[in-house]
């Protein structure tokens, strides 16, 4: 029973405000250059990247799901967005993103969020690796101030020529120096003292590059500024009319699958970084969908949960969702009050940030370890990545998923056939494991090689599963073997 004489305890409405406020500033400084860089690399106005970051912070950040992961425009979707804008035009981007959001909300409402955790990790890592390779190849052209070819193979094949051409042009060399310097700062930033590293690496790299370009008056391209309201382009009614386009529908499916998978895999990774509440996957999928639906209505970039920002949020000491909401507020204030600052940022610096981000998507060390332990999974990863580079994002992911399903089916049909022939009496054949149509050629080859003039005892009691195709094939073989004039094949009843 409560003591009426005891002083009443006052519970602060925001007990972790100090930690969340400090963390929000760190996340804002990490997100700012990435939002702008992803937008520019996607072929859309820089302000649209900020719009997506704002919506990801304020709208998705307020919703239930994962309390500490941060959403915004992601490097992982850059290639897909660029291809969509090039093929269907910028007005159609809003339709694609809006439809993606509606599908994500529907999947979350139908409780399908948890099923994304069943997607093969190798497929997801292969998808990110393929995106990373195409992103690196495309942004290297931006580093040297050249226009990138359309397809992945053309990007990679044309790189040597682009770098050779850059060597003979002063402006191109200045652009290359800024881009290379940005990558060098990002790579070396983690080796600097902790006090220096309180400034996020991407912000420091872009800030130093901008300062160098201004002080040295370098002839490099900078970000084009249109203003926040001038960049927002809600999709028109005519743009919605293109939704029946088969290619556009395929792009919507690709956006939905990739954005959802990346967000939920990110949530699982973030959960391992803290001891707070675990992610509610279906609610997180609804939150991502709501954010994408609003981004679509504003004609902005699609959003996903971003592991770089989320990890920075956790490491900066965030305790509640207030940190990610506040980071969205800071992005909004910057976009409203200081948009002119963007015009000073050199494009080669942003390209350098994305080259570094793309390199981190390629799991070189993990692939070497995976090859030693699980070569089948390593093969799926490599084939998925190569397919994305060679064909396209959507087809590459489908190839990876198909390989993963085929590998799982093959392993699930593990079968052992043991033949015991003592030289006299019946030949004994023991089948154990899972007899499916995938293993049918192996079974029949072995049984048909048995002597036709000897009786056979076929023991199926060790089988865990015997599908209809195998059962029918075994019965047909037994009839043919018995018809040769020997004793009928004796079959021991199976457990299936």
TrEMBL record:
<dbReference type="GO" id="GO:0016020">
    <property type="term" value="C:membrane"/>
</dbReference>
<feature type="transmembrane region" description="Helical">
    <location>
        <begin position="122"/>
        <end position="146"/>
    </location>
</feature>
<dbReference type="InterPro" id="IPR001902">
    <property type="entry name" value="SLC26A/SulP_fam"/>
</dbReference>
<protein>
    <submittedName>
        <fullName>Sulfate transporter</fullName>
    </submittedName>
</protein>
<dbReference type="Pfam" id="PF00916">
    <property type="entry name" value="Sulfate_transp"/>
</dbReference>
<dbReference type="GO" id="GO:0055085">
    <property type="term" value="P:transmembrane transport"/>
</dbReference>
<feature type="transmembrane region" description="Helical">
    <location>
        <begin position="329"/>
        <end position="358"/>
    </location>
</feature>
<keyword id="KW-0812">Transmembrane</keyword>
<feature type="transmembrane region" description="Helical">
    <location>
        <begin position="166"/>
        <end position="189"/>
    </location>
</feature>
<feature type="transmembrane region" description="Helical">
    <location>
        <begin position="243"/>
        <end position="265"/>
    </location>
</feature>
<feature type="transmembrane region" description="Helical">
    <location>
        <begin position="21"/>
        <end position="41"/>
    </location>
</feature>
<keyword id="KW-1133">Transmembrane helix</keyword>
<feature type="domain" description="SLC26A/SulP transporter">
    <location>
        <begin position="17"/>
        <end position="384"/>
    </location>
</feature>
<feature type="transmembrane region" description="Helical">
    <location>
        <begin position="88"/>
        <end position="110"/>
    </location>
</feature>
<keyword id="KW-0472">Membrane</keyword>
<feature type="transmembrane region" description="Helical">
    <location>
        <begin position="378"/>
        <end position="406"/>
    </location>
</feature>
<dbReference type="InterPro" id="IPR011547">
    <property type="entry name" value="SLC26A/SulP_dom"/>
</dbReference>
């Amino acid at each position: 029973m409560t003591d009426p004489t005891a002083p009443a305890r006052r519970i602060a409405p925001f007990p972790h405000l100090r930690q969340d406020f400090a963390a929000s500033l760190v996340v804002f400084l990490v997100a700012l250059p990435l939002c702008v860089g992803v937008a520019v690399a996607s072929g859309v106005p820089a302000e649209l990247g900020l719009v997506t970051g704002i919506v990801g912070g304020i709208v998705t950040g307020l919703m239930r799901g994962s309390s500490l992961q941060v959403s915004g425009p992601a490097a992982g979707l850059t290639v897909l967005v660029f291809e969509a804008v090039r093929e269907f035009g910028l007005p159609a981007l809003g339709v694609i993103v809006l439809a993606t959001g509606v599908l994500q909300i529907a999947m979350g409402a139908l409780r399908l969020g948890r099923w994304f955790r069943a997607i093969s990790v190798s497929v997801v890592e292969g998808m990110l690796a393929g995106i990373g390779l195409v992103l690196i190849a495309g942004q290297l052209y931006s580093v040297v101030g050249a226009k990138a070819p359309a397809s992945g193979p053309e990007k990679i094949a044309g790189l040597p020529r682009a770098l050779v051409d850059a060597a003979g042009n002063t402006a191109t060399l200045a652009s290359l120096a800024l881009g290379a310097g940005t990558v060098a700062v990002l790579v070396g930033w983690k080796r600097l003292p902790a006090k220096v590293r309180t400034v996020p690496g991407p912000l420091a790299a872009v800030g130093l590059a901008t300062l160098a370009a201004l002080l040295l008056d370098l002839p490099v391209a900078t970000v084009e500024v249109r203003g926040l309201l001038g960049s927002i382009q809600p999709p028109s009614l005519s743009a919605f009319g293109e939704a029946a386009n088969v290619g556009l529908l395929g792009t919507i499916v690709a956006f939905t699958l990739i954005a959802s998978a990346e967000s939920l895999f990110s949530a699982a990774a973030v959960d391992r970084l803290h001891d707070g509440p675990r992610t509610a996957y279906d609610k997180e999928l609804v939150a991502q969908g709501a954010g994408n639906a609003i981004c679509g209505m504003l004609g902005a970039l699609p959003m996903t949960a971003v592991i770089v920002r989320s990890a920075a949020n956790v490491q900066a000491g965030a305790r509640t969702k207030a940190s990610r909401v506040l980071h969205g507020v800071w992005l909004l204030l910057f976009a409203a009050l200081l948009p002119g600052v963007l015009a000073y940022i050199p494009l080669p610096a942003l390209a350098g940030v994305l080259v570094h981000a793309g390199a981190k998507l390629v799991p070189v060390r993990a692939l070497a370890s995976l090859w030693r332990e699980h070569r089948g999974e390593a093969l799926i990863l490599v084939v998925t990545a190569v397919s994305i580079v060679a064909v396209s994002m959507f087809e590459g992911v489908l190839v990876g998923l198909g390989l993963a399903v085929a590998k799982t089916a093959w392993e699930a049909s593990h079968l052992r056939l043991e033949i015991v022939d003592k030289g006299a009496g019946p030949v004994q054949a023991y089948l154990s494991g899972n007899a499916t149509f995938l293993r049918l050629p192996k079974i029949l080859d072995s049984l048909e090689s048995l002597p036709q003039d000897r009786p056979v005892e076929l023991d199926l009691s060790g089988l865990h599963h015997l599908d209809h195709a195998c059962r029918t094939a075994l019965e047909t073989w037994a009839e043919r073997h018995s018809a040769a004039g020997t004793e009928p094949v004796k079959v021991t009843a199976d457990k299936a």
